Amino acid sequence: MLSSERQQQVQRAGHNRGVTLVELMLSLGITGMVFTALAMFTTAVASGWKQNSKHFADATVSKRVSAKLEAAVVPSLWVLAARNDLDDGSSIVFLWRNDSVGAADLKVQLGELALVEFDANNKTLWIYEVNTLTASSDPNATLPVGTSDLNQDDLVNFFKSQNFVLERRPLAGGSTQGQAWQVNDAQFSAFAPQGGKPICVYTLSMSESESALKETSGSIVLRTPQQPLE
């Protein structure tokens, strides 16, 4: 039998032995798996964050465009016409903005209009409005506008060419959202429920650079409508 002193020497030798190659390989393998799992987790988190950020940015643009379009339409007295069949692929909405030219007579005149236009060439949605002070002294502002006139393509360019029409303002498209967004298509419709307020319905297809199309749609109800006389 080993003496107690010899047993203690053997035990100390066992405690002080080095790491074997097998143990080293196992340790490296476990460490590698941990780092691989950590890298996969980090990549997944970054991808999810990027997707959420893009979704949030798109939603912000949609809300901003809808808010601008609503602010342009709501102050009007009536939605006179919504057309999606212009020769150049554009779409328009004619609004009766006010009854301020001459005496208030509930009759639509040229100087009382506002125009929302989707410009298919520039991929932009514009608003054309009237300078009421200039219109008050311009004889063209008193020209009557009837239902048949609103269905003529010529009225669009004729209205935009008037001296009392202010410089157009962008509502959507181009860099109006601080990004390279463009409006690829716009569709409008309008109706007035029996005894209700006029409603303008819109659908916009937009894209940013080469990203997929994003569709924004909604309806706008006029707050204080006044139906014009025919």
Describe the structure.
- Helices cover 35% and strands 25% of the residues.
- By secondary structure, the protein is α+β, with helices and mostly antiparallel strands.
- It has one domain (60-221).
- It has a five-stranded antiparallel β-sheet with strand order 1-2-3-4-5, with helices on both faces.
- The longest helix is centred in the N-terminal third of the chain and has 53 residues, at 21-73.
- It is rod-shaped.
- The mean pLDDT is 83.
List keywords for this structure.
230 residues; alpha+beta; 5-stranded antiparallel sheet; 35% helix
Rg, alpha carbons: 34 Å
Question: Element order, helices and strands?
Answer: HHEEEEHHHEEEE
User: How many DSSP E strands?
Assistant: 8
Name the overall outline: rod-shaped
User: How would you classify the quaternary structure?
Assistant: single chain
Number of helices, counting only DSSP H or I runs of 4 residues or more: 5
* Percent in helix: 25-40%
Query: Which ranges are low-confidence, i.e. pLDDT below 50, for 5 or more consecutive residues?
Result: none
**Strand line-up of the largest beta sheet:** 1-2-3-4-5
Which structural class fits the helix and strand makeup?
alpha+beta
Largest sheet features: 5 strands, antiparallel
- What's the domain count? 1
The proportion of residues in beta strands is 25-35%
How far is the N terminus from the C terminus?
124 Å
Residue-averaged pLDDT, rounded?
A: 83
Short synopsis of the structure:
The protein has 230 residues and is of the alpha+beta class.
